[in-house]
Write a structure and sequence with these properties.
This protein is an alpha/beta fold and 186 residues long. The chain has 5 helices and 9 strands, in the order H-E-E-H-E-H-E-H-E-E-H-E-E-E. It is globular, with a radius of gyration of 15 Å.
């Protein structure tokens, strides 16, 4: 319990350094009936792993970027390529765009991920942004070489188009393990 409180406090400090306010939490949006999941902030441990996995990729796309914690922390960790946040909800996209103005390598797109063509040489980061029907439609059109899928509850949507190359359990601050998959194009 104490460890979780300390880690939550550290996350709060990191968020304030990045954008001047907390980015923690789970938030509803107006697109739940469309097939989107609530906005949820990625853990800093997940972002560190994504940073490691992004080596060799000139672009990382955060699908369902929410308030942008992933993008801002990737930049802070020293990612030198292009960071693109795709967010369907205009409120979250506007927030991200405002906070991203000071970063040259971060672009926010307020669009439906199904209408965006992700470069085949990009790595995609996803914190389970979709319900199954939307996830299948998205994966059907996706050509990216690698996906880092966190809170990975819809593995069957990715196979056989993508091959699971790593299975990870990355703990939240309270110790709860979150299943994560590294998937490479088959």
């Amino acid at each position: 319990m104490l460890k979780s409180l300390i880690l939550d406090g550290l996350d709060e400090i990191r968020d304030r350094i990045l954008v001047g306010q907390s980015l923690s939490g789970v938030y509803d949006n107006d697109y739940l009936s469309y097939g989107a999941n609530p906005v949820q902030s990625s853990s800093y441990q997940m972002i560190r792993k994504a940073f490691e996995l992004s080596s060799g990729f000139g672009c990382v796309v955060d699908v369902g970027c929410g308030m942008g914690r992933f993008l801002f922390q990737m930049e802070r960790l020293g990612y030198k390529g292009q960071l693109i946040g795709v967010e369907i909800d205009p409120t979250y996209a506007a927030f991200c765009e405002l906070k991203a103005r000071r970063y040259k390598n971060i672009t926010i797109l307020n669009i439906d991920a199904l209408s965006y063509s992700i470069d085949k040489d990009a790595m995609v980061y996803m914190y389970n942004p979709f319900k199954e029907n939307l996830a299948r439609a998205f994966i059907d059109k996706l050509e990216a070489k690698r996906i880092f899928y966190t809170n990975a509850v819809l593995e069957s949507c990715f196979v056989p188009k993508y091959k699971v190359t790593q299975r990870l359990n990355i703990p939240l601050n309270d110790g709860t393990p979150v299943p994560c998959l590294v998937l490479d194009k088959a």
